[in-house]
Give the backbone structure.
Amino acid sequence: QVQLVESGGGLVQSGGSLRLSCAASGSIFSINAMGWYRQAPGKQRELVATITSGGPTSYADSVKGRFTISEDNAKNTVYLQMNSLKPEDTAVYYCNAHGVVVDGFIAMHDYWGQGTQVTVSS
């Protein structure tokens, strides 16, 4: 019923920029918070940034000052602007939606996108 579709990943040189997008679709009334996570090979998935609907943002220390999360509530879309990319930012980036109200009920689980690869070459 709810789908998250990411786009914008790719290959970029160190110091470059990328912008990720994630659009949520389905019978969505509202979303409490959306965020981005990433998983590098051989590592656990980690939080990158989150944004609460109309509210505050939070970032992992490793991306503060370089990444910016934003949202378009009307489109149920979240963005991640990534600047000054480093090779250690290489990972599959996943979009997350938390507290999604669907067909009048709040979902008890989070929704995830399929992931988009970001590769930063040195």
The longest strand covers residues 28-39. DSSP finds no helices and twelve strands in the chain.
